[in-house]
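Revision sheet: structure tokens.
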Amino acid sequence: MLAYGAIIISAVGVAVCIARYSQRGLGLSSTERLGVGLGAFCGAMIGAKLPFVFSDWNEFLSGAAWFSNGKTILLGMVGGYFGVETAKWCLGVRVRTGDSFVVPVAAAIAIGRLGCFVGGCCYGTPTDLPWGVVFPHVDPLPRHPTQIYESIFHATCAIVLAIVLHNGWCRGNLMKLYIILYAAYRFATEFIRPEARFLGGWTAYQFASIVLAIGFGCLWWRDARLMNKVQLPSKSVE
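Predicted:
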């Protein structure tokens, strides 16, 4: 548990350091930066817990569900996105901040998933592949180290999105792109996760991934249209 805690603290520290660099040009005051940061943190924590809070009615009513184990990164990312938007609305911030969060978040999750590996949670299904890992508290079977897979995915996203951000590509929509990419990744890797299966043999995370990919794709399309309208030059009157 000490190693897990140390890794999570390191992930938060790395995210804060990168965010300080990536948000330098936003022109936000100290109060606005703090408010937006708190919005991101609170939104992510609430989103990450929601599926587990509502999965047990008795614990939901008692409030114990909020303090029990279990979090989901997929909805944590979505909660963080809307937490930032809510904080910006409350503070009257009109600056687009999503791009400045995408690399810090990806780097933090990449490190945080190593904590999951050390802690022995979020493991995959049994495998015969040579890199299968035995989690003794589960069973003696080698399993997919899905925590490592995901760490590699987010680390790759952090590097690629940093390059995209540096070159000014896809401006204003990088967080949406990141969430869509993660939804696609999560849909694919659910087939090697020991989750409960529902219609078509799909897990709840796969259904959620489809909904979120479509939802954030629509947000991207809406924002792109709005930006195009702003950038179109007005016609001169002759």
